[in-house]
Design goal:
Layout lengths: L12 E6 L16 E4 L5 E9 L2 E6 L3 E6 L5 E3 H18 L4 H4 L3 H6 L3 H14 L6 H22 L11 H10 L12 E3 L3 H11 L5 H9 L2 H12 L7 E3 L4 H14 L26 H13 L1 E2 L2 E2 L10 H4 L4 H4 L22 H10 L35
Antiparallel strand pairs: 1-5, 2-3, 2-6, 3-4, 4-5, 7-8, 9-10
Length: about 400
């Protein structure tokens, strides 16, 4: 088995300061790529970094602030180390006959490099192979990764706050990739391909006998968006870490232009889910930055309301995001906004409002099922079952 390459750097710590619980978080913690640095002992430190003159400032996942001498520090994006780890996993599959015993040898190095999400995915994969007698190493690795992810999210929220949800740039890339449709033309999508990922993909397709010479030539003549669709259709998220999607996929473009204007005038106001009230359901405000857009999309995507889903993939017309904007008499009590101390007026007077029709057209773009985004999702209280919730396994789109 090929070794998961270690990167050695020289690092000098100048200061270590805790971040106060009530202090404003540095701006570079929001939506920026998570980074990893390595000290002289070979240990890695993960957090959010920015360069200030001849210094590198890092806030680690525990909330402590570190200052390093820039000339003595190498800083790596987490995505770079994740791509390296995924290559090591591919080597196990091709060179070591996909053996669980070989995969578990990757855990120590991946844990040292603080690759929480990748460790969690591999651990869950290995544990699922033998549910009645799962690998002890996989169970231990899964518990470690879950604890680290929870700590990271606590730091992002601010020392144990129960509300709030924030994404890294790596998370946003994973969401963008997950939302790329594999069929249909995508207008104005831009993507950067790194580490010769297209050449590696083509080599794999040719070796498997999937692509002929003509298929290969056609792929190379395609637009970057078309190439991305082909890569995803053929290999899933295998090459995601080597593809940077520069702008929004169609679903998020519509979310920005159609949904956000509704949210900022309804749910995301200080008096509702954009303020400091007791509601478990919180939206991130203001909705100007890219990370805030994606954070709010994921909140709407995952929140389990009692009456159903805010974004209903199986039956978009029953999405509470839409029904809550209409008068109760038009949607019925089961899909109307729940009673509140301060009455919530309907945003639209009727379903014939052109803006409501645009919202419904956007909801029809939702995939049939919620994608596996490959990120740590918000943890919500589980509501009691509701008779209005679509039955398990339903796939009909109305």
């Amino acid at each position: 088995m090929k070794a998961f390459k270690l990167i050695t750097v020289s690092l000098a710590v100048l200061t270590v300061l805790p971040v106060a619980a009530d202090a404003a978080k540095p701006k570079y913690m929001r939506g920026k790529p998570m980074t990893v640095v390595q000290d002289q002992s070979g240990a890695y430190l993960r957090g959010w970094a920015q360069i200030q003159g001849d210094q590198v400032e890092l806030i680690d996942i525990e909330g402590e602030q570190h200052t390093f001498s820039r000339k003595n520090v190498n800083v790596f994006k987490v995505a770079e180390l994740e791509a390296e780890f995924r290559k090591a996993m591919r080597d196990v599959k091709t060179e070591e006959d996909d053996k669980t015993s070989e995969y578990v040898k990757l855990f120590p190095d991946a844990k040292n490099k603080q690759l929480y999400e990748e460790v969690l995915k591999l651990a869950e994969k290995l544990a699922a192979r033998s549910p009645d007698n799962p690998s002890r190493e996989a169970i231990a690795a899964r518990a470690w990764a879950q604890e680290r992810i929870q700590q990271m999210n606590r730091t992002l929220r601010g020392d144990g706050a129960e509300e709030g949800f924030q994404l890294s740039e790596g998370d946003i890339q994973k969401i963008r990739f997950a939302l790329i449709p594999i069929e249909g033309r995508i207008e104005r999508l831009r993507a950067n391909f790194r580490n010769e990922v297209r050449e590696r993909f083509l080599e794999e397709m040719v070796q498997q006998g999937v692509f002929s010479d003509q298929d290969r030539r056609q792929f190379l003549r395609s637009t970057p968006a078309e190439q991305l669709q082909v890569i995803k259709a053929r290999t899933g998220d295998k090459y995601q870490g080597d593809i940077e999607i520069v702008n929004d996929p169609p679903l998020i473009m519509g979310f920005r232009s159609i949904v956000v204007p509704i949210l900022t005038r309804t749910c995301a106001t200080p008096a509702c889910h954009g303020g400091e009230g007791p509601s478990a359901f919180k939206l991130v405000t203001p909705m100007r930055e890219t990370d805030q857009i994606y954070e709010n999309f994921i909140v709407l995507e995952t929140y389990p309301a009692k009456a159903g889903r805010l974004l209903d993939h199986t039956n978009p017309k029953r999405s509470l995001l839409a029904t809550y904007t209409l008068p109760p008499a038009e949607v019925g009590p089961e899909l109307a906004h729940p009673p509140t101390a301060t009455p919530v007026p309907a945003f639209f007077k009727s379903a014939e409002d052109p803006r409501y029709e645009a919202l419904m057209a956007w909801l029809q773009l939702l995939p049939l099922t919620m994608p596996d985004y490959g990120i740590a999702l918000p943890q919500w209280p589980v509501p009691p079952p509701s008779a209005t919730t679509a039955p398990a396994g339903a796939t009909t789109r109305n």
